[in-house]
From TrEMBL:
The protein's name in its UniProt record: ABC-2 family transporter protein
Pfam families membership: ABC2_membrane_6 (PF06182)
Coiled-coil annotated spans: none
Sequence intervals crossing the membrane: 117-136, 142-166, 178-200, 237-255
Organism: Streptomyces prunicolor
Amino acid sequence: MAALHAWRAARVTPLGELLAPPRITAALLRLTVQVVLVASLWRGLYSQTGTTAGLTRDQAVTYAVMAVLASRLRELDQRSGRDAVLQHMHFGTIIYWYLRPLPPQRYYALRALGEQMYGLAWALAGYVVCLATGVVEPPKSPAVAGVFALSMLLGQLVLYYVMLLIDQLCFWTLRNGAAMLILIFAQNLLSGVYAPLWFFPDWFITMSRFLPFQATLSVPLSIYVGRVPLSDAGAQLALQAVWVAFLALFTRFLWRRAARRVVAQGG
């Protein structure tokens, strides 16, 4: 029975996508356009130079395209199924999370796992196509590929807890759509989704080191393209693991505090 509940929770958002073929077509079209535009942009930026900020053209294109593919891991639309925390808080339906057989924190984790598995299928398919067409470079060695995979796993755990923190803010602010958009933008900017962090000023790079965002994407992609050598990867993996442990404890504490704020008469 527990396995059945877990399966039903994990498939909530992916099932909404699979039952709406136009949304799948739109997602495929959007991902294709993003990859083509990003690859064209970075190739154009490097048309007059060989190396910038320590990156060659092929490294920069590989980084940028893989950042686009990685964004598919947590890009599913929870709002269409009215299962976003912000919506539940607005309509008062968050109380049902506390009446289900699964605890809310476990339901949230299982749902996120289902979303990431579905997103991983998209990302892997896109990666295979980009690799076959020469848009991205392959990893330099099997060791680099293995360390990258481990770093990517840790990065996704950090991203899960960062997104969980953003959702948990709803228990205190109720209507924080603007704040959530700002935080999501900051997460994308500081994690290197829009551009590698090496192109930013030194003060910006120094500031980002004290935040968990770059551990979500910048670190694994830096390992993949060779910006972070394997000799330095151990320290980066350790830092990612520290962020995972800290954020796990902090969000667990917030779950307990959030439960005290839930009432039966609305959000």
